[in-house]
Design brief:
By secondary structure, this protein is an alpha+beta fold. The chain has seven helices and seven strands, in the order ααβββαββαααββα. It has a domain of about 180 residues. The longest helix has about 45 residues. It is elongated, with a radius of gyration of 30 Å. Keywords: Membrane, Transmembrane, Transmembrane helix.
């Protein structure tokens, strides 16, 4: 007997493979891509949140002025939403730390719901904060171990000086988290809310944005002769005596001089009560003089 020729076997195998392998992958890969991108942005948000503590205190220290730069966790959470998770073309400005501003969310973080055929975010919204999906929580503590005991003892001694407060903490741990939306058409992702969480840690002090003036004010009374010079009026006396020819050299004597330029002056800013940051006037003078010395001109 002659065997009948079989046709379409390869096509049938391809249809089976497509139905059970290729089609699920085609549906799964976009979701996997979006979740991977969300994880990367969450890591960036954790780094952003913890590095903000380099310039901003979590709360105002007791010996600081009213214009001390402070940024709460709520403000950082708002900035994360409007800067890290926003569309790449979104500008950065000060009011983004309030919930009155909602930048357009990055399109990568949106998915088309197969049941409603509408575009929705990957995140589960908070009913009390519509449009905001992320939270940032900061925990400040001292360093673990014996070093923390030593720094505490030194801080108590230095705190005798007025306007001086040496922080015994400064070890910041930040936790950035968000709840991911569950989809009825994608039961493999579970019917419970998934959580995306990332942590960041940094040892720092929020003094930099205070500028050289704030540093000089804090360090003033750590120089013993500085306290006596101010109370006894020695500086004024030196200036008066320097008028006399016999005591002309006294004009060059600068008692208890403090030059807080360990960090370049132009990299520090003056932070006012309105939230504006500008280069301090004395820094501008130093900068212009240095540029002129090098043959450049500041515009």
């Amino acid at each position: 007997m002659k065997s009948l020729k079989q046709r379409g076997g390869v096509l049938a195998e391809f249809i089976v493979i497509s139905g059970f392998v290729l089609m699920p992958l085609a549906l799964l890969l976009p979701m996997v891509f979006k979740h991977v991108e969300n994880r990367q942005m969450t890591e960036q948000a954790a780094r952003y949140a913890v590095w903000e503590r380099v310039a901003y205190f979590q709360s105002k220290p007791k010996n600081r002025d009213m214009d001390t730069p402070v940024k709460t966790d709520i403000q950082i959470s708002n900035e994360i939403r409007n800067r890290v998770f926003a569309d790449k073309n979104a500008a950065i400005y000060l009011r983004q730390n309030t919930n009155q501003v909602q930048e357009t969310l990055n399109p990568v973080l949106q998915v088309k719901d197969q049941t409603t055929r509408k575009w929705v975010t990957l995140f589960e919204e908070d009913k009390n904060k519509a449009g905001f999906y992320h939270s940032s929580q900061t925990n400040e503590s001292g360093l673990p171990g014996d070093f923390s005991k030593v720094s505490t003892a030194v801080g108590k001694v230095l705190s005798i000086a007025p306007n001086m407060e040496l922080s015994n903490k400064g070890f910041y741990r930040v936790n950035v988290s968000s709840k991911l939306r569950s989809f009825k058409w994608f039961p493999e992702l579970s019917d419970k809310s998934l959580a995306m969480t990332r942590q960041g840690a940094l040892l720092t002090e929020g003094w930099m944005i205070g500028g050289p003036v704030a540093a000089k004010r804090e360090l003033k009374y750590l120089v013993p002769i500085g306290a006596f010079a101010e109370k006894l009026g020695l500086e004024k006396l030196m200036k008066l005596l320097s008028v006399l020819p016999i005591a002309e050299e006294l004009g060059w004597l600068d008692l208890a001089k403090i030059e807080p330029d360990a960090v370049p002056c132009v990299r520090l800013g003056a932070y006012d009560s309105k939230g504006s940051v500008s280069t301090p006037a004395n820094c501008e003078r130093h900068l212009k003089a240095k540029l002129q010395e090098l043959g450049h001109r500041r515009r």
